[in-house]
UniProtKB/TrEMBL annotation:
<feature type="repeat" description="WD">
    <location>
        <begin position="105"/>
        <end position="146"/>
    </location>
</feature>
<protein>
    <submittedName>
        <fullName>Uncharacterized protein</fullName>
    </submittedName>
</protein>
<dbReference type="InterPro" id="IPR036322">
    <property type="entry name" value="WD40_repeat_dom_sf"/>
</dbReference>
<dbReference type="Pfam" id="PF00400">
    <property type="entry name" value="WD40"/>
</dbReference>
<feature type="repeat" description="WD">
    <location>
        <begin position="20"/>
        <end position="53"/>
    </location>
</feature>
<feature type="repeat" description="WD">
    <location>
        <begin position="63"/>
        <end position="104"/>
    </location>
</feature>
<dbReference type="GO" id="GO:0000972">
    <property type="term" value="P:transcription-dependent tethering of RNA polymerase II gene DNA at nuclear periphery"/>
</dbReference>
<feature type="compositionally biased region" description="Polar residues">
    <location>
        <begin position="1"/>
        <end position="15"/>
    </location>
</feature>
<dbReference type="InterPro" id="IPR015943">
    <property type="entry name" value="WD40/YVTN_repeat-like_dom_sf"/>
</dbReference>
<feature type="region of interest" description="Disordered">
    <location>
        <begin position="1"/>
        <end position="20"/>
    </location>
</feature>
<dbReference type="GO" id="GO:0006405">
    <property type="term" value="P:RNA export from nucleus"/>
</dbReference>
<keyword id="KW-0677">Repeat</keyword>
<keyword id="KW-0853">WD repeat</keyword>
<dbReference type="InterPro" id="IPR001680">
    <property type="entry name" value="WD40_rpt"/>
</dbReference>
<dbReference type="InterPro" id="IPR020472">
    <property type="entry name" value="WD40_PAC1"/>
</dbReference>
<feature type="repeat" description="WD">
    <location>
        <begin position="244"/>
        <end position="278"/>
    </location>
</feature>
<dbReference type="GO" id="GO:0043130">
    <property type="term" value="F:ubiquitin binding"/>
</dbReference>
Amino acid sequence: MANLTSLTSNPNPNKSFEVLPNPGDSLSSLSFSPKSNLLVATSWDNQVRCWEIVGSNSQPKASISHDQPVLCSAWKDDGTTVFSGGCDKQVKMWPLLSGGQAQTVAMHDGPVKEIAWIPQMSLLVSGSWDKTLRYWDTRQQNPAHVQQLPERCYALSVNYPLMIVGTADRHIVIFDLRNPQAEFKRIQSPLKYQTRCVAAFPDQQGFLVGSIEGRVGVHHIDDAQQSKNFTFKCHREGNDIFSVNSLNFHPVHHTFATAGSDGAFNFWDKDSKQRLKAFSRCPLPIPCSTFNMDGSIFAYGVCYDWSRGAENHNPTNAKTSIYLHSPQEAEVKGKPRIATGRK
């Protein structure tokens, strides 16, 4: 019986490399540098930590603190600087490579849930529970522009000129960043329940949206392409339905990963509408995940995500782990569509 128990609670069933030392509390975001294998993690213990990944080894590099839990992170496109935002209602800019001090470069009236650096505009965008998006020139104290949102910002994805913002009440707001001061389009999410994550298509033609109901929507922006839209179920086990917490496009093959509160991650191909690879479930949820710059590393966090409340939090096995998986080409390379009918 002991063997069965240890088998079912194997903390690392996919034999991934573990990043050490472990963060002290649940993770909220993971982001790789666009220029190197530097990995940043933000956590509910108010910390922003950075590791250098060399082969199967992780070297802790540095860390900074916020006054309250940190919810999001993003890198500048040159790989020198990290941005982090959280419950202290501010965004910090950390010149990581130069060893400089972190400084506050953005402020909101509520927790900062999402941030992204937009290289084409040399601006930082931050989305908050104060129902605004704010654009920042980091050399100036006041925002370059404040954009009202219909509700609290829950998710944000930028692939210039496309920006997708998911808010409370299932609003999806689409921006063309060539004209950032006006909404390009606003729709209701194609999913029936609360939005958890969004990801803009690499070709800027649409976006993925994931929700708390274990479902992903594949949505095109152009009305002429609406026939290509579909939704699919994932991160479900029998009658148990789990949140889809993270959506990441592979930077080379443009397939994508989902990660969920069931402790599983999967790789998918939206064009052929098939799952490329399903991985073994970890014993705790996966709240966040990301690919590195060339897609050779998939990082994912495993920890309690509070989706089942404080009463289901077990401090004795509440370890927070970050794992690295090296995708094989067959796991992430799209498959040709199966032709139907005669040629």
